[in-house]
Fold this sequence. Notes:
Layout: H1 7-15, H2 20-39, H3 46-58, H4 67-74, H5 79-92, H6 104-111, H7 116-129, H8 132-146, H9 151-167, H10 178-191, H11 196-200, H12 203-215, E1 223-224, E2 227-228, H13 230-244, H14 248-264, H15 270-285, H16 290-296, H17 299-320, H18 325-329, H19 332-338, H20 344-357, H21 363-374, H22 379-396, H23 400-414, H24 422-432, H25 437-450, H26 455-474, H27 487-499, H28 505-518, H29 526-534, H30 542-556, E3 568-577, E4 580-589, E5 593-599, E6 602-611, E7 615-624, E8 631-638, E9 644-647, E10 662-670
Antiparallel strand pairs: 1-2, 3-4, 3-8, 5-6, 6-7, 7-10, 9-10
Amino acid sequence: MSPSVRLQEMIRVIRGARTQGEERGVIQRECAAIRAQFRQADNGTRSHNLAKLLYVHMLGYPAHFGQMECVRLIASPRYNEKRVGYLGAMMLLDEKQDASLLITNSIKNDLSHSSQYVQSLALCTLACMGSAEMCRDLAPEIDRLLRASNSYIKKKVSTVCSHTHTATPSIMVELGVLHGAVVLITELCERNPDTLEQFRKAVPELVLMMKGLVMSGYSPEHNVAGISDPFLQVRILRLLRILGRNNDTASDAMNDLLAQVATNTDSSKTAGSAVLYETVLTVMDIKSESGLRVSVTHDSVIKRFLVCIYLYLLEVLQKIVQTDHNAVQRHRGTIVDCLKDQDASVKRRALELSLALVSAVNIRSLMKELLLFLSSCPPELRAHTTSGIFNAAERYAPSQRWHIDTILHVLTTAGGDVRDETVPNLIQLITTATELHCYTVHKLYRALITDISVQSLVQVACWCIGEYGDLLLRGECEETEPVQVTEDDVLDALETVLQSHMSSPATRGFALTATMKLSTRITHNVDRIRSIVSIYGSCIDVELQQRAVEYNLYTKYTVHLHNVFNDHLFLVLNSMISSDRFFFLFVAIAPPSVTVYEKNGVTLKLQTDTQTDTGMTVTLTATNSTDGDITGLTLQAAVPKSVQLQMKAPSGDVIPAHGLGQVTQTVLLNNPNKVGLHSDTVQIDSFPSTAW
Length: 692
């Protein structure tokens, strides 16, 4: 980094440091360059270098060697240098350092400057780090500026007065700018009770100011959440409380005002709650009327303050739960009750704390409360709630069935607010839960025919039907009440998804793929499947069109090869590697065991397990020797119409890399008529040139 590098460039390089050591190296080199330039004569880069040094100071690195440079720049006649010098003084100097005394004369000169902006720089610095000696020496200049007509300067002076009284209580100055004046008077009254009688004379003026704020219209520069300058209102109320304490006259003068503030302040916002809170404290602390005390302790007011207390307590518990989980568990019931609170802020804090309390011991009971909350929570909290439920379920699920049921419940309730990875994660979970395939496909089928508006739920349902449709059609399920479903029922459901205007392109892709997969699991509706799929051969969506064309090519050019028992069986392997779909067409010799495909790292073996006069059971085994997993595996078989084919569900759809696992699928073949079929296959390697 060159010594003349700009501040923005230095910040960029520091932020780009990959390690703390690299950051320290960059800062050390830059500080060395800044030191060297500070020793040189004025070359116009002093303010530039000091600005860089102040950024280094903000990062926590030593920058004390720039103190004298601040003194030099403050004495400069150029405004841009003077501004950086004063900023450096406020950051690098304090009232305890001797160097701060060196700028007293420069501040005195600048307080008499013709420019209000230069005067403002001096006043801000004095209010920030002015020592008792500086305040005492500069008191005449401060008093002179306080009597000036410029309100911009008077606001700055009021801040100086507040600091001056803290540093040197003996110095008394009169103040006329609202906010600064109120802050100063409050501090004077708290530190010196002898001044109370003098300032009680100003109660009528304070009441008029407060009424003006309460009844004034919208003011963009002072409005906060619909409340006109709530900071000033709070300061005035706090001062009125001090002045009205134990004084009947002052209390009577502010009773009507306090009633008006309590009635007209909107406490639904934080700013309004702050004003109302100060109003209640003032009413209860002064000698107010009994009716006014009753009105400010009404249930609605107290409830609003309880909300603030809830927020504070929930924030405290959130900090404690990180170090003492069991201590917070004792308050779980109260925390869960806060989920039902009407205030959105309380709900959010309670939700975060409830999710932090989930453990393997309470996962079932606490998840019921979270799912109940999800059904009625505000829209802005749904995404956070679903994400938290998924994380808790994945970490502490007592069983796979409970895990699947919980996710399906979330998808049914708030499927539009789940993360994008929810669908593939749930598919992976279902795939590994082999014993729950029948239960899951029945449950998802019922959800699909009930509502197709939740896209994530529909996508998982379509995938599951495509994978385990044979279990659905069988109508036998021990885990749930079986439903008699026909092939037409399943295809009707998928076709409804394909034709619905609510279905996204991704959802249609799931439905179309499921429809194609069913062609290997049903026997009476293959022509209907071809008809459904063929429609999408000219679809405007490229993905759907590609899937439909590939399937149509397969069904159109399938060659029925030889007798199914002693000759050949025609198979199609359709898989996904790195999101690119490909087809393998091959002929496999059935008896008794043979490698029928071995290419691109994929090996497929066919083995005859049992064989009778009219039937045969074949097991297909796929392995993968490549470096990456092969996902989305689908095995398809085609036989003559005289032969009955039944393909069992595969053991999975992912072939692990490096041969670390395998996928198997059982095929049942039945040839009741013992028909012998023959056909020829001809391969044409080239065409006459006139054919093109």
